[in-house]
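The pair is set out directly below:
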Amino acid sequence: MAVDIVTFGCRLNAFEAEVIRSKAEAAGLSDTIVINSCAVTNEAVAQARQSIRKLKRERPEARIVVTGCAAQTQAAMFADMAEVDRVVGNDDKLRGAAWQETRDAFDIGANEKIAVSDIMAVTEMAPHLVDGYASGLPRVFVQVQNGCDHRCTFCIIPFGRGNSRSVPMGAVVEQVRTLVERGHAEIVLTGVDLTSYGADLPGAPRLGRLTKQILRHVPELKRLRISSIDSIEADDDLLDAIAEDARLMPHLHLSLQSGDDMILKRMKRRHSRQDAIGFCEQVRRLRPDVVFGADIIAGFPTETEDMFSRSLDLVDECGLTFLHVFPYSPRPGTPAARMPQVAGPVIKERAKRLRAVGEAALQQRLQAEFGARRDVLIESEGQGRTEHYLPVAIAGERVGSIVPRLIAGVDGERLTT
């Protein structure tokens, strides 16, 4: 049997899952399940552990390897699980040698389960072109950056990913060109802290310059999308590209986290509430049809009801369409875990209210699409997405094609034509 990957967490993990598969299979592994874990919340770690136990019951003969951010930060915990055969570090998982060593450890019955190196010692990033993407798959990811140099008080991810490092621009452009030649219509640039791109490269190019280089040197590219960014780090070239090139999709996901200035300071974020509002207003002037998504944490330590209300209000003041709501989860070793905590039921209730506001904002945007003409990328039989990443119920079109459609209505959380 082949290598099966079970991925938790972010888009970057989803991209890396394909790299893991190719490296592990090239090393000769078979009948192996790789858990590509996430450490962003306690719930994500718990889900990985539950999945491990369930998979071992279903496939008792399969080998189970755990990697990803949670494996990097909590290796001993996973190694102590009887179901786990090997724990591979978050940088090691992208290297063929680590999977060769894993296969050899299986063969000789090695007792040492943990193969996790010091992530903070990693200073360079090699490009990984995914060969496992099916030809013509509508949307594919290109990793341009990894790690983070910032230390937000709630976040464990820098200790799972290491410090920020970037793929050289030329290598990124070549990856994009190759993927476009294989028939992929939309490319998504992904990383841990995308707007820190290039600081470690000669000449310190920024994300905006990389974006312009891709658009200039791969004219056949139909759509370019950028995943989550830190708005305070958005550079002038990026704003120019948003304003000037229709192939850069009018959809930005922002790492906002809170709408209250005191909470933002306690989070050690680098933007204020007004910075977030001002950025959205600026981009909307440049690209009036842009839509925004955002990450927001509910129930951060010391958050009062008044502070939380500012996060609720931010949805309207920034004109957010897509909300990714995180109920605050204390991560061991982070400064926020030592701050006065908000009661669990209060966190849960605030997250529920925030999601309700987000659902209302999405419905408002969907209703506003009535009568608009959109170019829909067909993702699968029966569904596509507009330039703004809004889902569309659509049938009878070739997967991977982009078709113009007049939006006729809304069916639940999807547009109809």
